[in-house]
Amino acid sequence: MLFTEDTIGDLFEKEVENHPDRDFIIYPDRDLRFTYKEFDERVNMFAKGLLSMGIKKGDHVGIWARNVPDWLSFMFATAKIGVVIVTVNTSYKGHELEYVIKQSDMKAIAIIDGYQDIDYINIIYQLIPELKTQERGSLKTEKFPFLEHIIYIGQEKHRGMYNTNELMLLGKHTDVSEFIKIKKTVNNTDTVNMQYTSGTTGFPKGVMLTHRNILNNGYYIGERQKFTENDKLCVTVPLFHCFGIVLAVMAIITHGTTLVMIEVFDPLMVLAAVQKEKCTALYGVPTMFIAEFSHPMFDMFDLSSLRTGIMAGSPCPIEAMKKVVKDMHMTQITSVYGLTEGSPGFTQISVDDPLEKLVKTVGKPLPNCEVKIIDPKTGKTLGPNITGEICCKGYNIMKGYYKMPEKTNEVIDKE
């Protein structure tokens, strides 16, 4: 029996009903806060705005942005109206973005100004020069036959693009009954998120993940950390990746707790956020944790509120793990193992496991997941201490790679 058969929109609206005034999302560096109710109202406005633009159930909408406050507004808005959000790596250059827009059949993309030295606006105009000459809302481009809209996340106006204020305005003037009707047609087995993964070979593949996949995976990951409504999770990892969307956001909404967001990783910002908001959980890849406890101002911060969190994404050095436990008070830190195709987690340490298990293993299979190690040549299940290929079976396995049936068949067998 899975935790939920709800869609993301339905489950979130239940949480809004249960505790409308609890903080859902906090950006401590700018003192920006949304309660569950405030955030839901904004999401509904975005969803109606997208409908008004002609975005329909089953369409693909991209997002190319740092962890800005409206990243999640777009994600929840698309989830509510049965639209698939295609998450785009913030480090992509023009040719990589071009491939993803084409391969995903993207109908619209929401973007920010840029990231590090990558100018997103300039790249978009280079790829789609028609934006500067065609009327907004009726884009026609030979290169991207599906693409109709570019949305700028922010207040600035850019030729050929809607900005978020204009999207909200469209939402205000859209009939709510249409929105309610479409919401009711969304199924938990519909694809809600497409993430591009290249694995080790070939072109990036669009991993199709459903509401059922990621909501339940997030719930069990939160359970292994013993999340309750009193927890506050500081999120330093990018939202375009499963670490951000599932391990963080889905774990939070299935436990009715609070997200404390960092827009771009900065160790000093993380330490300040944990102290200011009294965060109980912190996520990151090993290099992030090392940057935090190695910071020259580390001793100036009170991190005693921390209890748990996740260090994952690459092998976790034993000494770093021990230091996080001792100096950052994270005595119940966990690690998760998986891959995007598995939504992503299929094994995790529990907060009850001893430190030696934490530093030497990736834990036990999550509930409702079967995991085995096989000999890749014979398919035979192997015994302890023998190296082989790890296989997973369960509710968490992706629908497949978008428009790549052969590649899907290579990684998913009849079991």
Q: Which parts are unreliable, with pLDDT below 50 for 5 consecutive residues or more? A: none
> Per DSSP, what share of the residues sits in E-state strands of 2 or more residues?
15-25%
What is the CATH level 1 assignment of the domain at 210-397? Alpha Beta
Principal-axis shape: globular
Using DSSP, what is the number of strands?
22
CATH fold node name of the domain at 210-397: Rossmann fold
Q: Ends: how far apart?
A: 19 Å
Strand-pairing-aware structural class? alpha/beta
- In helices, the fraction of residues equals 25-40%
Considering the chains and any ligands shown, give keywords for the structure.
8-stranded mixed sheet, Rossmann fold, 415 residues, 7-stranded mixed sheet, single chain, alpha/beta, 21% strand, globular, 22 strands
Overview of this protein structure:
Helix 10 (267-277) crosses helix 11 (286-293). The chain contains 14 helices and 22 strands. The longest helix has 17 residues, at 36-52. The protein is an alpha/beta fold. An eight-stranded mixed sheet has the order 9-8-5-3-4-10-11-22, sandwiched between helices. A seven-stranded mixed sheet has the order 2-1-13-12-14-15-16, sandwiched between helices. The chain has a three-stranded antiparallel sheet with strand order 17-18-19, covered by helices on one side. The mean pLDDT is 96.
